[in-house]
Amino acid sequence: MAQQLVVTAIGADRTGIVSQLARLVSDCNCNIVDSRMAIFGNEFTFIMLLSGDAAAISKIEYLLPSSAFELNLLTMTKRTSSRVLPQLSAPYIIEYTGVDKVGTLGAISSLLAEHQVYIGALRSETIHPTVDGPAHTHTVMTVQLPTEMAVEQLRDLVMKKLAKMQLSGHFVLQS
After folding, report:
1. What is the CATH topology of the domain spanning 3-80?
2. Which of 3, 20, 93, 151 would suit a FRET pair with 54, their CA atoms being 20 to 30 Å apart?
3. Whole-model pTM?
């Protein structure tokens, strides 16, 4: 029976890290089911969901610490299992932009949590549209609603919250 392992790695960004980690995964006879990579400042970050039989997962758990040491990476692993989600709507995109303020993402995500909205993906960044102007936040979320919730109701709540926070944005069906 396939087992799953979440692997997180962080370290100084340089060419070849993904290749070396992917090679280790395949050498251990594991499969990369899902992954995300990002650069934060000068730091490389990589999250992978691996699957494999018990021996393969145990092997990568054993070999990863020494490989991470050689690559000068901090790593963390956690065994997990397949997730069964409740019945949810089709995915929607919530995207917003505005002057960057402390608490913006927290306020929007709290509204979604109050209504049991599932956030499946999130990207938030601070951008500088002009050299001397204020920093702006730009966030894109992929969300799914409980099937019993009316999309129009949530769209209205989100758009009112964005307007109150002086953010521009939209709430649309993912294409």
Report:
1. Alpha-Beta Plaits (3.30.70)
2. 20
3. 0.77
